[in-house]
Structure formats: structure tokens, C-alpha cells
Amino acid sequence: MLSPLKIMACLFMLVLGDIFVVPDTAMATYADPMDNRVDSLLSLMTLEEKVGQMTNIGLMAVCKGDFWEGRDTIEIDSAKLRRLLLDHHVGSVQNMGKYPPAPAEWRQLIGAVQQVALQESRLRIPVLYGIDGVHGANYTAGSVLFPQQIATAATWDPAFAETAARVTAYEIRAAGIPWNYSPVLDVCKQPLWGRIFETFGEDTYLTQQMGAAMVRGMQGDDVADPHHVAACLKHFAGYGMAYNGKDRSPVYLPERWLRQYIFPPFQAAIDAGALTVMINSGSVNGIPSHIDYHLITEVLKGEMNFQGFTISDWSDIMNLVEAHQVAADEREAVKLSVLAGLDMCMEPYDESFAVHLVQLVKDGEVPMSRIDDAVRRILKVKFQLGLFENPLPPPSLYPAVGSAASVAESYQAALACLTLLKNEAAVLPLPKKANVLVTGAAANSLNYLNGGWSRTWSGRETAYNDEEKQTIFEAIQAKLGSEQVSFVPGTTYTEEVDIAAAVTAAQAADYLVVCLGEQPATEKPSDIDDLSMPQAQLDLVRALAQTGKPIILVLVEGRPRLIREIEPLANGILLAYVPGQEGGRAIAEVLFGDTNPSGKLPYTYPRYSGSIWAYDHLRSDERDQNFGYDGFNPQYEFGFGLSYTTFAYADLRFLPDTVVTGEEVLEVRVTVTNTGKRAGQEVVQLYTSDLVASISPAVKQLRRFAKIALAPGASQEVRFSLAAKDLAFVNQHNQWVTEPGAFTVTIGPLKKTFVWQP
Ligand code: BGC
């Protein structure tokens, strides 16, 4: 207990605006001294102050007038701000999405919020401001926009994920913001879902490696360092697996499956130190995740040992009433979610969550112990971030926002993601002396390259584009000279503009670079009913094919839109995903051979909308109409991607050779040779297949990968180690097991089998 004298001493320090330190070593009961600080502060708090810490409101709730009205400006309404921060003790504010303020304007906004919290609130607890900086500090003018996560996954090099997250953290913190709602760790095996571009694709292991790298980059070794921010893993759990492919729609997954495919990336990121987790807005097996005690409390905070705090997704308390129909009213929804383990509620518009929760505690329906647990977790993150000591680090710490070095990092990542899917008769790289028509909806748009969450939430607003950046057309023009390069739009995303004009222009060109793709969108606006590339875009390719000129398709798309019908009409196909601000330059660089492409698919590219399987499907999925096993026939397989050179695989060897016992480690060696005439990079992928198991095993599972660079003619022996736990799966009792028996290792075209025994 604090004596009245000590309370006086604490308050005196607070009034001075000093660092919040409780000088009471007698209180120390925890191994981590930070926990003592948390408890000391908690012991001073009223119920209302505690519940306020659990409340996260939107910037719109503290602004003058209608937030969305007008352009390029918002003004903090000090009466609204004071009411929420002082009367309702709100401890967290979030987001933007309307326009991108410059760092200095951001700091003013955040400063105004912190000033009320730090100088006028009773306990001077700093506000925790959160934002979606999902591919760079995307809501800050002048920041570097990196490739979206799906493109980063296609690099198969976690160093790019780590670098992007490090720069993002720096540039977010430069705006005075210490908390980022990133990374997205949803494994997605449903290509219709409009948020695939925000994920690392369909594989659990690749997502694990990339996600942990992002947490390392974002939080650094010490998250209190003012160049780092707290990560927020989202969306726990299963959000990317909607049954009908629509955003925020139901997911049906056996727990066995959740454990094997969905949880591991979250576990890896938690082990890497991630401080916060956002809950899935949808339902899994009919249970909305926000009220799932088993998921949040037993699994996440229990088994997975997550010590940070959980936050709801946007307005998801009200969604429990309106969309999910599991609560009669908001009060009941608040009760269910907090009892399930939710620590902070993202209610962008008002303080209703706090009002209900205070009453629920007073009425004895939510125990104070649950509130204390939530607030401890939240305060601890605020202490860990150093917010009490340094709520708004000085701008002088951030001289490098938008620096040339960071732009170069984004450019390198964009180059590394580009995935060559077809190169008939080595049509690519194109000669620089050629005349080129650049056409298509994505040909002359920065917005298509950047995708959603770019300067605005939707990413569609052109007014905030960084005009000095190059679209695909502009980059090709810059490379070849304007006389050689023409541009005709041909279509928009879904409508014809001037296909006939494109055909006419094609007559004068040697090559047609046709840039198809998806307009930027995220969340519900990204829902589609048909995975096919929109008809107008297919029509453009068909019309151009009539000219007989070689066609190079460049696909700028968040998800794999079906191209089956036009694929035979194209001589070359380059998949660019959503490569970010430097994507135009990178595409030109690869098309004209200055860089050799090295990206590989992070998902299975489907051929038919009625044939959707991930690479790690079951053998029974492959059965065809003739009762054979040829039913798996995607357009392109997971892990696929060509190069301007060729690679040969040889000498797949094991140590020990054929039998591995207990904890013994199997070393796998393979030699890769660059058999072509150009230097290139290859992603060496190791898959295992369990030949017989008590649960039908996946045909293969990615276990290891390494991206290597080889000069022409050069060889490299690549070594991987596998242990019994790398062969494990979740059995019918929801337990991880490795069952004895034979396993095949596949690397490139080579296969070799060994036996594992306990
Ligand atoms: C999205 C989250 C995002 C949050 C805050 C939600 O609608 O699902 O990914 O972090 O909004 O913007």
C-alpha cells in the first residue's frame, strides 16, 4: 500500500510534469521493475480512469465539425478533446485516412492531444496514439511508401520486411506516433479476399519469417528508443480465411487447422516481442472473435504467453450487436468482449464503451480484477515505449524522413518482388531501341502501384500523389526516351476508354506493354464477386493481340485475378503485385533487362474460379474426373517465378543419410548452379511431405528457404537443418506431434526420402 505521504510525493512529481517514478522500493514485488511502476500508478487510479485507459477513440471524435468535410485540414476541437480526455479519461487516440499531414503538422496534432493528457489530467498519463502505417508511414506526406506486404513476401527475403518496418517505424515516430497497427499476419488461402495484398500470402512458414522480421524492424532491440514503435499484430485469428471470400465474413476452420496454419505466425511475432494484438473483426465457426474467451484469454494470453494488450478492430463492439447478433445491445457487447479478454476498445466515434464498462463494473457484472489486468497491460506498453519520459521526442531526432537511402530501400524491395511468370522465346528483356506502346488501366497510375492505405485509406485519391514518382509509362519513357514510347489508356479498371486507339497505336510499336490490374481498395470496398480480371481489360488484350505484335502483360494487382483466357495471347508476363512508390521504376528496370527478376509467388495463382486450392492442399484434393490425381492445375504454382538465367539443382544429400532418430538434426544439402549467361538470384525452397499420417497430410509443406545470388556458371552448396519439430502437425486431439515414418524432401526438381523414428 502507498502511504498518504508517498501519494503526496508522487502527485507532487506529477504536478511538476516530471517523469512518473514512484520512489518506493518497498513496493517492488515483480522481477521486472517496470511492473512496479505500473502497479504504483494503477493503485492511484479510479475506476473511471482505468476504464478510460481501455478506450481508444478516433481522431474524428476530437476534431471540429465533420471530420471528412473540407480538404487538407483538420482542427482539434479543444472542448471535445477535454471532454474525452478529462471527463472520460480516454487513454488512446487513433488514425487519420483523410489526407496526409506533414510530420510537423502531425506533431502539432499529437502535441495538442498529449498536452491535455500530460498537463491537465489528474494522473498525467500520456496518450497512446495508434495508426495504420502498413507499407511505410503511409499517412504522412513525404514518407517512403514501400511495397505492400504481399509484394514483400514475393521477395522471399525477410531482410526487406525488416528494413521496411524499421523505416516505417522511424517515419511514424517522426510524426509523434508511437504505435503502428501492423503487420498483418493473416494467412490467406482464399484469393477472392480483397485484403490479400496486406498479407504475406498463403503459407504459414513464409508469413512467420516475414512477420517476425517486421516486428524486429518495427520495435528494434528497445522499443523505448525514439526511432521505434510498438507493433500490433492483426487480425487474431483466422480473418484471412473467409468462407465466401468477402471481407469480415464468416470463417469456418477446425481448431486443429487454426493451430497448425493460423496461429504460428502470431506466435513467432509474439516471441519476437510484439507488444499488441488486434482482434479479428469476423467470426470463426460462428463465434465472433471479440467474444471468444478461449481464443483471446486461453490461447493468446495463456498458451501463447502474450503479455501485451489486445485491441478490438474498428467499431467491433457495435458489430457484435448489429452484424454478429450475439449481444442484444452495446452494453452486453462490451461485457462479453471484456470478459473474453479484450483490453482496449477501438470505438472511433465516442466514449460509449467507457460509459458502459464503468456501469458494468459498478453493477458487479465485470470484475475489477479483469479491468486491472487490462489496464496493467496497457500501462506497461506505455512505459515500455518510454512515453512517460519522452511523450513527443524532438523533431531534431528525425532528419531522414523520406531520405534518399530509404527510397533506395523501397526501390530494392520493389525490384526483388517482381515475378516473371512467362517468357516465351525469351521475349524479355526488351531491347532498349524498341518502340513501345504502354497501355492499360495500371499503365500511368501511381495509385495502382501503391494500392490501399496510401496517403488516404482507400488509396484512390490522386491529389496526394507524389508527382516526382514515376508511373510505369513514365519510367519506361525515362529509360527509352519519349520518342520511342507512347501511352494510350485503353480502359479504366472496369470500363473501356479507347481500345480502338490503343490498337491503332500498337501498329506503330514493336512491343506492347499492357499493364492490367486492380484499382486501390481495402476492407469492404475491396469485395468482388468474380475473380476474373475485369472484362474490359481482357478485351483490351484480345484486341491488341489481333495486331500480332508481341504482348508483355504487367499485372499490378492485390490478388491473383484470373488471366486464363488472355495468357496464351501474351509472350511475357510480369507480376508486380502492389509494388509501392518505386514500382514504376523497378518494372521498367526489369522489363529492359537492367535487373534480373527474382520474385517468387507467395500464393497459388488460380486458373479457374472453381478450382481454388493452396499449394499445401491434400492429395484427395487432386483427384480428377478420371479418378486420377491430376486435378490440381493452377495457372502458376506457389513458389514459382522465372529468371533471365537458368538454375540447375544437383546432389541432394542428407546427413545422416536415411534414418533420423529423436532430436537428431537432419542436415540437407543441395548444390545449385547458375547455368545461364546472366547473374541471377534463386530462391531455394525446401518442402517436406509426410507420406503416411494419422491426419491426412498436406501434399507438401514449405519448411525452409534461402535466396542466393549466383554469377553465370557459379555453383553454391546450400545447407538446411531439419529437426523432428519441423515435421510436426496438429493431430485430432489438437496437439502438435511428429509421427514416425517416411518423409520426402523436395528441393527444385529433386526428391529424397528419409525415415524419422523416435
Ligand atoms: C481494419 C484494421 C485497421 C483498423 C484501424 C479496421 O477497419 O480492419 O486493419 O487497423 O481499421 O484503421
CATH superfamily of the largest domain: Glycoside hydrolase, family 3, N-terminal domain
Q: Number of domains in the coordinates?
A: 3
- Which structural class fits the helix and strand makeup? alpha/beta
Please give the alpha-carbon distance between the first and last residues: 54 Å
Number of strands: 26
Beta-strand fraction estimate = 15-25%
Reading off the top of the CATH hierarchy, the class of the largest domain is best stated as Alpha Beta
Helix content: 25-40%
For the largest sheet, list the strands in their spatial order: 9-6-5-4-3-2-1-10
Low-pLDDT runs of 5+ residues are 1-26
Structure notes:
The protein has 758 residues and is an alpha/beta fold. It has 3 domains: 4-397, Alpha-Beta Barrel (TIM Barrel); 418-591, Rossmann fold; 645-757, Sandwich (Immunoglobulin-like), CATH 2.60.40.10. 30% of the residues lie in helices and 17% in strands. The protein has 20 helices and 26 strands. Strand 23 (729-730) and strand 24 form a beta hairpin. Helix 11 (316-322) crosses helix 12 and helix 18 packs parallel to helix 19. The two termini are 54 Å apart. Mean pLDDT is 95; it is low at 1-26. Bound molecules: beta-D-glucopyranose. The site of beta-D-glucopyranose (BGC) has 8 residues, from loops.
